[in-house]
Amino acid sequence: MTPTAPVTRFAPSPTGYLHVGGARTALFNWLFARGRGGKFLLRIEDTDRARSTPEATEAILKGLRWLGLDWDGEPVSQFERRDRHAEVARQMLENGTAYRCFSTTDEIAAWREANPRQPFLSPWRDATDLPDAPHAIRLKAPRDGETVIDDQVQGQVRVANDQLDDMVLLRSDGTPTYMLAVVVDDHDMGVTHVIRGDDHLTNTARQIQIYDAMGWDRPTYAHIPLIHGEDGKKLSKRHGAVGLHEFAALGYPAAAMRNYLARLGWSHGDDELFDDAQARDWFGLEGIGRAPARLDFKKLEHVSGHHLGAMSDAAVLDELDGFLAETGADPLTATHRQRIAAAMPALKEKARTLPGLLDQARFALIERPVAVEEKASKSLDTVSRGMLKSLTAAVQNASWSRDDLEAAAKAVAEENGVGLGKIAGPLRAALAGTSATPSVFDMMTALGREETLARLQDQTDLAG
Ligand code: GLU
């Protein structure tokens, strides 16, 4: 028998943004499918009409696109499939696994009051004499025995059937319940593996009962522990960033987020840093742990720094463009882009986030005359300005390579009987106006001859 390729899905309810936990669920499903030649489907659970605006759906698609998770086919709208859900409920009536329940809300409330903490037992379960009146359709759930979930993460989870009531499948107004809709959709979409947050585990026993009632094959389940904040508590707004867009705005590149999120709850030996191909190769349900993963910004920075360093210069520039657009900043001008591109090998080596990289690239973005910060200005005195003047003369016609520029600076330092550091300080102040920058020679090559000499001139003019 040839093993069939898996079909996974991500089934978000539109809440207005893509939660980082949802993004992680989507990533696990994507990795699982993509690593096995399978399909990754998207279903928008948009039955709550008040919340399901086109904008709320778009926010989720945007988050997935940003993270680089592509899905197969068109996103499925759960709401649009409501007739099919109702059809299945009627099929269940026909095959005797569901029944019409005429109990009113008041009657059910009264029953519950008389039978506290017991699952509701409908008097209509075995009734044969039925009125012509509004009714819900309920599952005729098994009363004896257990429903056993064979979960790939949680192990065997057993639920005593007498603890579950005959759930409503179709309400008296004809709308399907969430439980029915999920099962019908997953079945019709051919989903083989349901990988989702363990907050859904309690729904699973009920969903399995619907599969069994319809005689459908159950999917394989993997319920993954939720993500907690750094303090070990369930992740919430209190912890700061919870939406994927907030992480994007903090300047973590998407490739780093994929790597970092993959490690939140899943592991492959001691591997912390990996690329997509490795993640696809390695990812499996057996690597998912049972303990909640903790969000750790220090680790995320580390992963982010690694990925920035490993990306091509062009890819980092793309990320930078995206980041500037996302945060509403001005796009790079052609000159700025050229300078940053020239300094990129040095910039990406050091940076851990995109704002960190922009900070180091500030020298490339500022205009003359360069405003010199107080701390940096301390290195600009008469003597050092004199050295800058000598350097200007020395490099006026020199070849503009890093090595030649460094040799010229060394020569000037030697003539003045000082170390290279004594000239690098004022040079840095003149070029960038601050003391935290890439190496002075990287800045000179990135700025080019004309701009460098002009910035030096601005300072030496002040030498008197
Ligand atoms: N719509 C559900 C949620 O957003 C997920 C349902 C599922 O994965 O089965 O939590």
Keywords:
single chain, 464 residues, Rossmann fold, 4 domains, 3-stranded parallel β-sheet, 3-stranded antiparallel β-sheet, binds glutamic acid
CATH superfamily descriptor of the largest domain: HUPs
| Helical content class | 40-55%
Cofactors, ions, other ligands = glutamic acid
The total strand number stands at 12
Describe the structure.
This protein has 464 residues and is mainly alpha-helical. The chain folds into four domains: 7-77 and 227-294, 3-Layer(aba) Sandwich (Rossmann fold); 79-224, HUPs (Rossmann fold, 3-Layer(aba) Sandwich); 311-365; 374-463, Arc Repressor Mutant, subunit A. 48% of the residues lie in helices and 11% in strands. It is built from 19 helices and twelve strands. It has helices at 20-34, 54-67, 82-94, 105-114, 178-188, 201-214, 244-249, 254-262, 276-282, 297-310, 313-326, 334-350, 354-360, 362-365, 374-377, 382-395, 402-415, 420-432, 440-460; strands spanning 7-10, 39-44, 76-77, 98-101, 136-139, 146-151, 155-160, 168-170, 193-197, 220-224, 227-228, 293-294. The strands form five sheets. Strands 1-2-3 form a three-stranded parallel β-sheet. Strands 4-5-8 form a three-stranded antiparallel β-sheet. Strands 6-7 form a two-stranded antiparallel ribbon. Helix 2 (54-67) links the parallel strand 2 and strand 3. Helix 3 crosses helix 5 and helix 12 (334-350) packs across helix 19 (440-460). The termini are far apart. Bound molecules: glutamic acid. Glutamic acid binds at residues 11-13, 45, 182, 196, 200.
